[in-house]
Amino acid sequence: MTNDSNDRVQKEIDDLYRNQARKVYATLIRLLGDFELAEEALHDAFSAALTQWRQEGIPDNPSAWLVSAGRFKAIDHLRRQKRQGEILSELLESPIDSPVISKSSEDSREPDADVIEDDQLRLIFTCCHPAIDPKVQVALTLREVCGLTTEEIASAFLTTPSTMAQRIVRGKAKIRDARIPFQIPSQSELPDRIESALSVIYLVYNEGYSASAGEHVIRCELTAEAIRLARLILSLLPDAEVSGLLALMLLTESRRPARTDSDGDIVLLEAQDRTLWDASLIQEGIALVQSALGTRDFGYYTIQAAIAAVHAQAPDADSTDWQQIVSLYSLLLQVAPSPVIELNQAVAVAMCEGPQAGLVLVERLLTQKVLQQYHLTYATYGELLSRAGRNQEAIAAFEHALSLTQQVPEQRILKRKLAELSSSK
Q1: Which of 8-29 are b and which e, b meaning 16 or more Cβ less than 10 Å from the residue's Cβ?
Q2: Reported pTM
Q3: Mean pLDDT of each 10-residue bin along the chain, 425 residues long
Q4: C-beta of residue 38 within 8 angstroms of C-beta of residue 32
Q5: 101 class by beta-carbon count within 10 Å (0-12 exposed, 13-18 middle, 19+ buried)
């Protein structure tokens, strides 16, 4: 094979690993019934692909090929190790002949593409089973379904990586010991199971829209995956809060083209070129918000989507109805009290009543331990201090925010703020 062909195979495998690995992993968990074994099988399958595809070419259905290769690699591994005889026996004796497997020929029985998609949803509901502690559910799903690192999940929850690692280990043990089934709940069970699944999807979106660490602000593969999963759940359960979550993500996603400049630096909301916002996503999101609000049986996600809709409908930053946003945040705090929501409301109050009104609220929030390690608390504080003309205090706040963030573009914008304040002395 030529160097160009080798490069093409390498690029294909890199793209598959980035965009499809967690879907393949979910299917391997269903087929193998074990998280660790599936993880090993996933990496073995990609290693095999790197060798075989260079010799034989890229298959028509790469994801299905990886699932089949991973499964057989796992069986070979168990044979070599002469362990877990019961699992091996079940795998060998049970043919892959369930309705979720495509039988295109007698010699090739590969998973159907739709099944690989749905296996991620099955895995979400497995990880979000009521038998698992709610704190563990979300952490486990973010790690196993979406492939976020323990550090990324810890950042999303404002806690330590060691605490998160313990939760994930406990979750895996519970699934194994309680023999929690790998399946989508029945229609009668779905309403009671949906809250944790929506929480997971929202956290995945947030990590994609504003990465907790790294060189880039946005991880498009995560935002796209969160939106896809929300659409899938909405097709199973036409619920107001599912519609609200999908609306919230679509309205937020509509701003993505304007959120960074050509250098990858963050452009704050008030400075964004709104002609770059995606009108089709805004239209779809607003329709979903109106539908959810019309049921009068809405909650956390729908109210946030309503706030996003107010921003989306303003032709420019000066036209934003900040008073309505303050009122919506008050309603949101009644539904889901949170210091982060209070911080967001403080910004809205500052936009309505001036920076000093916002500073009073933020300074009170700074006494809460949970926000003392949150870089946006100090970034917000610095911005309000700057607008109030208290530049020296603003510099100290921005410096503290800089010490807390691990995302490179956020570090750059904070450094720019510091440079501007220093030059104005």
Answers
A1: bbeeebeebbeebbbbbbbbbb
A2: 0.73
A3: 74 89 91 89 93 90 93 84 61 47 38 69 88 86 84 79 92 90 83 83 84 69 86 86 96 93 86 94 97 89 97 93 96 93 96 96 91 92 95 94 88 91 79
A4: yes
A5: middle
